[in-house]
Amino acid sequence: MFGEERKSMISKYIIEHGRGSVLELSTTFKVSESTIRRDLKELEDEKLIKRTHGGAIPFESVNFEPTFGEKEIRYQSEKERIALYSGGFIQEGDIILIDSGTTTLHLAPILKAFSNLTVVTNSMTLMEQLKNESNIDIVMLGGSLRQETQAIVGPITDQILQTLHVDTAFIATNGISLSAGLTTPNLIEANTKRYMMKCAKRTILLADHSKAEKISFSQFGTVADIDMWITDDHLPKEIYQKFSEAGTEIHVANSHHTIPTVS
Amino acid sequence: MFGEERKSMISKYIIEHGRGSVLELSTTFKVSESTIRRDLKELEDEKLIKRTHGGAIPFESVNFEPTFGEKEIRYQSEKERIALYSGGFIQEGDIILIDSGTTTLHLAPILKAFSNLTVVTNSMTLMEQLKNESNIDIVMLGGSLRQETQAIVGPITDQILQTLHVDTAFIATNGISLSAGLTTPNLIEANTKRYMMKCAKRTILLADHSKAEKISFSQFGTVADIDMWITDDHLPKEIYQKFSEAGTEIHVANSHHTIPTVS
DNA sequence: ATGTTTATGATTACTTTTGATTATAGACGG
DNA sequence: CCGTCTATAATCAAAAGTAATCATAAACAT
């Protein structure tokens, strides 16, 4: 086998398996670890993979993220904490629905840790991150691609949602308010969210503190429609109390918090 | 044999076998290794092959992004020509359906040239390539992700297809035969292809010559179900005649052919 | 026919690839 | 924070492959 052939097979191997250790590749391709390391270095230069200690992972997971028109890069760590906390409400074997959005996207690495999961989503970006996870059954919701958010929305999506039933839906929003409920800028996207909530036994809203008391254009539900709201510890105390008194179950994912042990 | 003849045979050999070592080529063509190396150098200058230590591999396999679980990387240039030719059957404003597959994937760069198109597809890979094209309305077919081929298939996909109607469907196949019809290895994928053909006013099959007279596991249609078969100029003459006599409209996309000027 | 150009094969010097070895750097647990 | 362990980079020698050179033979032009 030529070096170039081996390199292309290594790249393929890593992309398909999602990873590849130096030792593993060395025995698979019957060359020394030195050679594997040299190959990995070159493949990394070509931006095909990303090296790690002990091996390499596909580049795409690093590559993909931006291209988001609605690229809210603020409150990154808050969103991560919210996603981590949310993971505690997922059990092996669950069928879960994940809405598109920057917060929900952080669920991807958490989902990968499960060994048996069915994930339904309308997020192209999430799909991208999970597409090579062999332990996850992925169901893509069909419909029209909204390029600004890389979300699949519209009547086709709504139609499919009417025929599906999931355990838990993780929904994102642009605004949550007691008076105006849950709101988002796009009418069609709002409608799709409405159907998402309808087909789930339980709805969990993921929204960092910046969304609190914000009102966007189109309403897709009220606070009474959600079973739980997971947010971060920068949420002002008085807002927490106001929503609590109104009957909303708020979970605060703070930095030192451990993951809840399943609902 | 003239040097040029030998060179073109070497190039063909490498492309069809996917590789060729200097020693192997030297014994096959009964010339010294020096001569083979000289030939390979010239072929590389012409961008027909890529040299490696010990031999050479096809140029396309280097060029093509290997992020595909799908293996078939052979006959790249044939597939490109088929896709280019197929582009001639697309008009501005059309609503077209594109099946997943390595041949159909080559349609992506051609579609980008249009300024008003609606593309319906079940191919994750195609979707990825088009997702930021603002002049294309993209409709993703929903359903389960089949990881081996990165195609969306299954009952949900079929259900959506029953509610859609498109101008032209571009379908890929693993085998086309007069007796066994159109066949593919996966049962569920076959069913989805069947629905695809059903919802299109016109069905165009894209299949390079290597698919001719091949029979795979599951049949999704007969040659009578397609309106046109676009293939490459390596299709043996007798196969062309056999299919033509049986009433199949075959278009051969050869290297010197200009693009047809819309159906 | 004769000199010139071109293609080819053989020979030799050089380059690349590879695996082994050793020194350095990074990760991990206490 | 530290020592220990493992992974990596750097180095080197052997093997494999290649480029450069030259001589011969064939094709070509005058």
TrEMBL record, chains A, B:
Assigned keywords, A-Z: DNA-binding, Transcription, Transcription regulation
Ranges for domain HTH deoR-type: 3-58
A GO term for molecular function: DNA binding
Transmembrane intervals: none
PANTHER family, A to Z: AGA OPERON TRANSCRIPTIONAL REPRESSOR-RELATED, HTH-TYPE TRANSCRIPTIONAL REGULATOR SRLR-RELATED
Protein name per Swiss-Prot or TrEMBL: DeoR faimly transcriptional regulator
Native organism: Pontibacillus yanchengensis Y32
